[in-house]
Design a protein that fits this description.
The protein has 247 residues and is α/β, with parallel strands linked by helices. Helix content is 34%, strand content 25%. The strands form 3 sheets. The protein has a 5-stranded mixed β-sheet with strand order 1-2-3-5-4, with helices on one face. Strands 6-7-9-8 form a 4-stranded mixed β-sheet, covered by helices on one side. 22% of the residues are buried.
């Protein structure tokens, strides 16, 4: 992990750069433990005992990356303008990282008369009479698509996993993309369906590895890297762009 430090005089406060992130490090002779925080303005802050080495700080930040990326994504979501999504013809909706225009139609799809919302070629189709329930129908559709995809992925990965999930569910997890319980259930946010598939794969594998390691210690990341060698790049993409994938 690339790291560079620029120390000021006196060395009570200085800047530490790890990958593309910049941290303000504040040393204190009274402090006994390391603390990582995200300020209201987005500043990354490390409160540390005096004399803590760059190597120690890098290791500490690395162990907290998942928490940190989650906080940054949450802050981005809280401070970005709320999407003014309208369920009208011409509005764009994401699926698997691509945007598709919505077409309001007079009748249900002739090929799937039981489905209120369908994806036909390059656009979504929704009966005009159901536009008022547009968000609910999109969430339901995303949930169905992601549930099917995740099931296929778990089957594909079965021989590579050392712990098998007892259940994979798709639900609303708030600001979390995924979760894994000690009872063997893996949960994905329905918003994962909007992400490019390579990023969705990272989210799923992250949670599948948590069935084996219920923490973010080095062995967790080492196992994830075996299954997904470029996981770090995908994780950075999710931190930067994930908040844009919503309704």
């Amino acid at each position: 992990m690339e790291c560079a430090a620029l120390k000021a005089q006196p060395a009570a406060e200085w800047t530490l750069r790890i990958q593309e992130m910049e941290f303000t490090v504040r040393e204190s002779a009274r402090r006994k433990t390391l603390s990582l925080g995200v300020e209201r303005d987005g500043q990354l802050l490390l409160l540390v005992p005096a004399g803590t080495s760059e190597a120690q700080l890098t290791a500490f930040v690395t162990s907290r990356l998942d928490w940190l990326y989650g906080k940054l994504a949450e802050k981005t979501a809280l401070h970005r303008p709320s999407p003014q999504r309208e369920y009208v013809s011409g509005e764009g909706f994401l699926f698997e990282g691509r945007s598709y225009r919505l077409h309001l139609v007079q009748a249900h799809s002739p090929t799937r008369p039981d489905a209120l919302l369908t994806l036909n070629g390059q656009h979504f189709e929704l009966p005009e009479s159901q536009a008022a329930q547009g968000r609910e129908l999109f969430v339901r559709w995303y949930t169905e698509q992601l549930t099917e995809w995740a099931g296929h992925q778990v089957q594909r990965l079965a021989l590579r996993l050392r712990v098998q999930p007892k259940q994979v569910e798709v639900t609303d997890l708030g600001y979390r993309w995924g979760a894994a319980s000690r009872t063997g259930t893996v949960s994905l946010h329905w918003r994962v369906a909007l992400l490019p598939r390579r990023i969705a794969e990272y989210v799923l594998l992250h949670e599948l590895v948590h069935l084996e390691f219920h923490h973010h210690k080095p062995e967790f990341w080492e196992r994830l890297e075996v299954l997904l060698p470029d996981y770090a790049e995908r994780k950075r993409w999710l931190a930067r762009h994930g908040a844009d994938h919503d309704l």
